[in-house]
From TrEMBL:
This is Pimeloyl-ACP methyl ester carboxylesterase. GO terms for biological process: glycerolipid catabolic process. It comes from the Bacteria. InterPro entries: AB_hydrolase, AB_hydrolase_1, AB_hydrolase_fold. Signal peptide: none annotated. Residues 33-271 form the AB hydrolase-1 domain. It comes from Hoyosella altamirensis. SUPFAM superfamilies: alpha/beta-Hydrolases (SSF53474). Pfam families: Abhydrolase_1. GO terms for molecular function: triacylglycerol lipase activity.
Length: 291
């Protein structure tokens, strides 16, 4: 275990487990109930900002964020050749908890991270205190009856991407910003904030080409049925999500017994921004402390 950064409010470490390295950062009092944040596809821990983590923990919870494989300071594979599967990504949160000697945690997952949280909720419920699923969709199900992404999102998959000089840090930062732009909601795209996060991520990542590629071509993991989830579940979803429109969140709420859906206003396919924390944080605190 190698500590590579620490401050008065957080401790960051790289831990080696099962032959891979995962970068972890913990906020709040050690030994308090744990909340593990699971980011979306191609996202490092940086998108869960320290401000979000501190507001969530409020001095009473330990909040943990980590870099997925191929992001930040965690292990990387060559671009286009991920040496892991969706099952490996879904097992990594449990590796993080094991590294920190945490038996059970609240899991909060965004998008792909929400799918990972569902997987753990079904297959390893003994490790889960509660789930919070943010702007995500039912894992492992048939989505044919759910609305597709916004045409602007689909276009980014169908059109050839720009030629990127991955050695040109400024060009990579610009590209990272533009990747996020179509995912904004009706609150608008805060370019200043996104550029600051992209700059932080690019400067500390081992291989941004791998980060922006490999999650989306890795072999899928085992399918699970969210209807089998039996832990308390909160769903945060916005009608303005251009990737997973609101019926995706409604389908989750209908499938998971006892789940509660909180509809957000104006949020895109993103971690809830400060503009809605007056709604999000009380809901999260109520959910986490209740369980």
């Amino acid at each position: 275990m190698t500590t590579f950064g620490a401050s008065a409010h957080a401790v960051r470490k790289v831990v080696e487990l099962d032959g891979i390295e995962l970068a972890i950062e913990r906020f709040g009092p050690e030994g308090a109930p744990a909340v593990l944040l699971i980011a979306g596809g191609a996202q490092s821990m940086d998108w869960w900002t320290p401000e979000f983590c501190n507001a969530l923990g409020a001095g009473e919870l330990q909040v943990i964020r980590y870099d997925h494989r191929d992001t930040g300071q965690s292990s990387t594979s060559p671009p286009g050749r991920p040496d892991y599967t969706g099952d490996d990504l879904a097992a990594d949160p449990l590796r993080v908890l094991d590294a920190l000697s945490i038996e059970k945690a609240h899991l909060i997952g965004l998008s792909m991270g929400g799918g990972i949280a569902q997987n753990i909720g079904v297959l390893s419920p003994d490790r889960v205190r509660s789930l919070t699923l943010v702007e995500t969709s039912p894992a492992g199900g048939n989505h044919d009856e759910l609305p597709p992404p916004n045409p602007a999102i689909i276009a980014t998959w169908e059109l050839p991407g720009p030629e990127i000089d991955w050695a040109d840090q400024a060009a990579v930062i610009n590209y990272r910003v533009e990747v996020e732009r179509p995912y904004a909601g009706s609150l608008g795209f805060d370019e200043e904030v996104v550029r600051a996060l992209a700059t932080l991520e690019v400067r500390r990542s081992r291989n941004m080409e791998s980060a922006m590629t490999n999650h989306f071509i890795a072999e899928s993991g085992a399918a699970v049925d969210p209807a089998e989830i039996r832990v308390p579940t909160l769903i945060l979803h916005s009608a303005a999500d251009p990737m997973f429109p609101l019926p995706h969140g409604e389908a989750l709420a209908e499938a998971i017994p006892g789940a509660r859906l909180v509809r957000l206003e104006g949020v895109g396919h993103e971690i809830p921004p400060p503009a809605v924390w007056d709604v999000v944080m009380p809901e999260l605190h109520r959910h986490l402390h209740r369980t």
